[in-house]
Amino acid sequence: MSSTASTSSETAQLDDPEMGATWFYSIVGIIVFVVFVLAVCVLFFGVQKGFTEERVVDELPVLSTGLRTEQTQLLGQYGTYEEDVDEKKVERIRIPIDRAMELMTQPTR
Fold this sequence. Notes:
By secondary structure, this protein is an alpha+beta fold. The chain contains four helices and two strands; from the N terminus they run H-H-H-E-E-H.
């Protein structure tokens, strides 16, 4: 009879963990998890900012600004140019955009 009495008291002790230890491990686990997540966020955003600073160029490209002014001047004047169409040279007429819009809005005769 003594063997069954000691077995039942041992199972009772195993089934009921101490409440203080459970709370302690839970709080420590949550704190470690939050610190880990914050550390990963800091590392991620630090690396991302470094990549952004490496790849951003603040200077205006000199070639494209010159090209833009040249194209704007060409659009504002009359002229002709040649274009390859089906392996033949075709002469085209360039007119200002304002004049082209006037011609397109005129009723057909």
